[in-house]
Amino acid sequence: MSNPQLLLVEDNELNRDMLSRRLKRAGFDALIAEDGAKALDCIESEHPDLVLLDMNLPLIDGWTVCKRVRANSALAGTPIIALTAHAMPEDRDKAIAAGCDDYATKPIDFPALLEKIKRLLESRKLQT
Fold it and tell me: Which residues form the Response regulatory domain (predicted)?
């Protein structure tokens, strides 16, 4: 059985490199996109098992990416975890309202993020 494929959408190169290496070590195949436009292209072409989505992105922001994925019936079930430096309760509510399944604040607590990823992948497996 192949490893779950995650799409990491992050415009900060240091964050992207660190997270992608840690995801690979945790047993995931990590696709990378640096901006919202590339993220949408990748989601449509690769159908990743889960998306880790920075909300403050160039070209198309994460809020818009999430809304477009949810509006596409072929992609709407893709789990999305928002990644953001904004840590106020209303920021989490805004991410969930935009269609994200969960939310993680930066700097990323990697063990907590792994738990969220595993929980969402497991719940998606049960639905299919």
Answer: 5-121
Which two tokens mark 5? 């494929």
**What are the tokens at 120?**
């969402």
Complete DSSP assignment for the chain: -PPPEEEEE-S-HHHHHHHHHHHHHTT-EEEEESSHHHHHHHHHHH--SEEEEESS-SSS-HHHHHHHHHHSTTTTT--EEEEES--SHHHHHHHHHHT-SEEEESSP-HHHHHHHHHHHHHHHHHH-
For the segment 12-32, the average pLDDT, to the nearest whole number, is 96
pLDDT over 70 at 128, yes or no = no
Contact between residue 40 and residue 68 where contact means Cβ atoms under 8 Å apart: yes
| CATH classification at residue 90 | 3.40.50.2300
User: How far apart, in Å, do the first and last CA atoms of the chain sit?
Assistant: 16
pLDDT-derived band at 15 (thresholds 50, 70, 90) equals very high
Q: What is the mean pLDDT of residues 68-94?
A: 92
Domain that holds residue 50: 5-127
Nearest-5° Cα angle at 13, 48 to 120: 30
